[in-house]
Amino acid sequence: MAYSDKVIDHYSNPRNVGTLDKSKKNVGTGLVGAPECGDVMRLQIEVDEVTNVITDAKFKTFGCGSAIASSSLATEWLKGKSVDEALSIDNMEIVEELALPPVKIHCSVLAEDAIKAAINDYRVKNGLPELEAAKAHH
Amino acid sequence: MLKLPIYLDNNATTPMDPRVLEAMLPYFTDHFGNAASRNHPFGWQAEEAVDYAREQIAQLINCDPKEIIFTSGATESDNLAIKGVYEMYAQKGNHIITATTEHKAVLDTCKHLEKLGARVTYLQVNEEGLISLEELEAAMTPQTILVTIMYGNNEIGVLQDIRAISAIAKKHGALFFTDATQAVGKVPVDVIADGIDLMAFSGHKMYGPKGIGALYVRRKNPRVKVTAQMDGGGHERGMRSGTLNVPGIVGLGKACELARTDMEADTARISAMRDRLERELLTLEESYVNGSREHRLPHVTNISFKYVEGEGLMMGVKDLAVSSGSACTSASLEPSYVLKALGLSDDLAHSSLRFGLSRFTTDEQIDYAIGHVKEAVTKLREMSPLWEMFKEGIDLNSIEWAEH
To answer: Which is one GO molecular function term here (chain A) (predicted)?
Structure first.
């Protein structure tokens, strides 16, 4: 299967690979997927508690090139967005941006899940109610 | 200068040897006759070439030239052997024994026959990829007409104990068929000494052309017959109708001759390169060889690099043409059934690469492959949350994963 140029670019030069201090109150961590499915994404956001803006985002992904590219792109999009804006990122935007084929749509779904899981973790840490979407996963 | 990408997927198919191509070429143009044309020199010439090829093949596997049935490839040979025996020996019984790590051409043929009333036993393999002779013996019944166990596995290269298996089949009056597609031309295969009644193999896995294969069908002790699955002019002793693919047959014959003359030297060189590749890649932490290393084809190694996903890894080793046991591209997300049959967890099965070397692989290519894979695995591990957890001493099994 041929990968799009954008997937290859993100795979070869991934943006924002790394780890944020998950013990910090203003860091939200989302870990989604499962090793036996061949995809695990960990996405982290650091939030300015005054402005509610995401100041940093990092990821680590175990998965195929499309999964790595989806999470790399997600971190790029998250930085500078408010937490509420970030919640509106839809997996189909990732599909379009990276030109993912149908068999790789699940990679974008996973990235969206990771964003929501990270935001949810941040909310719970800061005494805000859990997201409905996150609740549904339990 | 090293030409990229480097082809290390020779279990999928091999490049054709130029000596094979040379032997074939006249049979496309000058000697184009139909081997079944009995009335003119065009036909005689083609028939002569086919007979010569039968001899070349017979010499490689130690059979009589008349015992070779030409087909379009190993998949057709598998179908003809299993369905043909099932139909021909229906009066004796309806039980077939095979193994879970067989090629799909065998497994799906068995599944097809199950729908028609066959009873099929699928033997499990151990972590080395080998079936248990005791379990085989225990599975044999008076209704067992066929035992079908592959010679060498396409994914992990594991060689079954063919002589012991065929002896058990014989003892219980069942026929023994082996899909030897990966083995013929790579390791010495002797249908007499190995006790084989039927055997499938093909040209393109041993430096011959695609679209040609053969089924060995024993003619004495016992005389084996299969019901034709293709009706028509009654070619190949009535077992496989259809105009013979003369250039393909000439190519398969030449490939077999070259395998016979070159096997010893090829194997020494190829297995030394394979061993070096394997040794070097195993210096990476948490990397494991899948399947038996003792009973194995000389040109294959299948390695799992834990905490790295196979398809992502293949993209990282873009200068190498290899295969992965990860099936992230398929809708099922199911990793290789062969690796799972060895008892590998799904995550390790997803983390595997298969390297298949050939007589055209060079030391320089192996040097490059070693460096390239090491670099990619290291880079992807730095990107892998699982690797980070492993390094922090977190037990991945203790985490409640959200399966999707």
So the answer is: iron-sulfur cluster binding
What average pLDDT score do residues B143-160 get?
97
**Dist. CA B378–CA B328, nearest whole Å:** 21
B369: its two tokens: 């492959």
- Contact criterion met (CB < 8 Å) for B404 and A110: yes
Which residue in chain A is spatially nearest to B334 when comparing CA positions?
A37
8 Å CB contact of B404 and A32:
yes
**Residue B25 in contact with partner chain A when CB distance is under 8 A:** no
Give the pLDDT band (50/70/90) at residue B380. Answer: very high
Q: Is the pLDDT assigned to residue B330 strictly greater than 50?
A: no
Interface probe for B, chosen from A9, A62, A91, A98 (most Cβ of B below 10 Å), is: A62
Using 50, 70 and 90 to split pLDDT, how confident is the model at A38? Answer: confident
ipTM strictly over 0.90? Answer: yes
The residue-averaged pLDDT of B179-184 equals 98
Other residues' Cβ atoms within 10 Å of the Cβ of residue B90? 14
Using the 8-state DSSP alphabet, how is residue B290 labeled? Answer: -
A16-27 pLDDT, tens digit per residue, is 999 999 999 999
Nearest-CA distance A120 → chain B (Å):
15
Residue of B nearest to A106 (CA): B404
Give residue B369's Cα distance to chain centre: 23
**Residues of A that are catalytic:** 37, 107
Phi (first) and psi of residue A68, to 5 degrees: -65, -45
Q: What residue has token string 């298969």?
A: B354
- Find the residue in B nearest to A14 (Cα): B383
Would you state the structure tokens that stand for residue B155, as one six-digit string?
């994914």
CATH number of A5-123: 3.90.1010.10
Residues on chain A touching B309 (C-beta within 8 angstroms): 38-39, 62-64, 67
